[in-house]
Amino acid sequence: MCTDLDTLSLNGSNISSGALCALLRDYSEKGEVRARGTGCTKISITNCCKVGDAVLEAIGTLLGHSVETLVFYKCGLVSDEGLAYLAQHCVKLTSVDVRGCVQVTSKGIQQVLRRCKNLDTIFIPKNSLTIQERNKLRHSFPGVRVTFSSQ
């Protein structure tokens, strides 16, 4: 396995959360990324219908010290619970994309915005928030570019 992985990208994969968690554990253990303080900085998971909160928990636990960019586009099993775990453990996050994650609500988004102090961009599903909630987010976090998408 590659121990110098900078980016992990899966598009339209049929991989399960369990299999992806095992891959992340294997990478973390073999690469000794936690001890070195380095590791994968970008993870992009798109159109993977079997990927859910367990993967976000594994990312937080295993790569929270290094990951800066997370894309979970159209991953229907990702929810506020997974976002809360990421927000707690991924201290270097600068960009998050959860468009198309239908279980994500303002609760999870607010967790990320409050806890991820390095965050400068977040892409979120437009229908997960009311107009009032969208306006409040923009005003409450002026240093973060909040982009709403109908996709």
Description:
It is a single chain. The chain has 151 residues and is α/β, with parallel strands linked by helices. It has one domain: Ribonuclease Inhibitor (Leucine-rich repeat, LRR (right-handed beta-alpha superhelix), Alpha-Beta Horseshoe). The protein is built from 6 helices and 6 strands; from the N terminus they run E-H-H-E-H-E-H-E-H-E-H-E. It has helices at residues 17-31, 33-36, 53-63, 80-89, 106-115, 131-140; strands spanning 7-11, 42-46, 69-73, 95-97, 121-125, 145-149. Strand 4 (95-97), helix 5 and strand 5 form a beta-alpha-beta unit. The longest helix has 15 residues, at 17-31. The chain is globular, with a radius of gyration of 15 Å. The chain starts with 6 loop residues before the first strand and ends with a strand. The model is unreliable at 33-37 (pLDDT under 50).
